[in-house]
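Moderator note: this is an archived Q&A kept for reference. The question asked for a predicted structure of one protein chain; the sequence and the answer are reproduced below.
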Amino acid sequence: MAEAVQGPAAGGERGRPGGLSRSPGSGRDLDVKTEFLEVEGGTEGRGLGAVSPWEAAPPVGSDRPVAAIGVFDGVHVGHRSLLRRGLVLARERKAPLVAVTFWPHPDRVVRRDGGKGGLLTTLGDKAALLRAAGAQRVLALKFTEQVAAVEPEAFFTETLVETLGCQAVVVGFNFTFGRGARGDAALLAELGKAAGVEVVVHPPVRIRGRVVSSSAVRQALREGDVERAALLLGRPHSLVGTVSRGYGRGQTLGFPTANVEYAGEVLCPATGVYVCSLVRGDVAPDDVSRALPSVANLGFRPTFGPSDGEGIPPGLEVHVLAGEPPGYGERVRVFFHRRLRAERTFSSPEELAAQISRDRERALTFFGLSLGRGDRPQLAPG
């Protein structure tokens, strides 16, 4: 479910909002239109899905909200800390807390490489996580090149004040906005003071001495350090996909797997073998309540063919350790807990099967399981 809200333009590089741009020195508005999409959030993990196209809807200014603003990719522990501060402020003012984000990711619009680094969350997952963190509404601003070129003062006045009617705004310490990143948290505070809008700049959140950021999560995933990524996110990173028919090699080796075709827009970890959990059906990105303990190979299966993988995403094959495996065509979410090893080429299927058996044993140990009668996993004694 979604509805759009139209108003003056907003935008900026790396999630920097703008506003309805004015001709320099003229005080006249340029014809740049802002479009907001209200995202209900969902468990489908399918990005925009049914929430497109962007259509007109009544403005939200009458709500006089407190707005938490940012790209919020991943909705990591730093983002959630910012949302908690916004929620406290909203309760003090008896106002709704609105999370304002941007779609598509601004990097995909303003960067020459198209921002191909990969997202941590789809729009649907992001909205679900923002709502779980306390936002009563989630507004996604449609981000375009025209929107990215607007001036910071125009964004503040015409988008935050006039369109959204914000009585207070919460942003991160490194928040920047407007053409050429000219606007920053200090300018926002100055504009807010003049307009009677409270501006709260949230300090960085550190874990083990390092600032939590979306880029730090991406780096951890690219290195295969899914445990560090989970620490920064406050939950395991996950991929959503559909089970499809594979080559049946896992069955032949004695370890049947579910071949998961996942959405390419979400960043996958480095190739390798992982301890993971599989959840059948559409579930929220932080819901592991029905997860099945599993072990997975994420990669290009070099033992059975070319290993460069150029131009194609890594395949995801999941072996469920305990519970009923999913069927073909079933939607699943796969959570990554620990990388066991890198993917490598084996000299024979028998050598590969022996290694898979060792991987399985390590995954069982991770979950506190052991093999019972008939090779059925059960809780380990003690």
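Archived answer notes: Residues 1-30, 43-58 have pLDDT under 50 and may be disordered.
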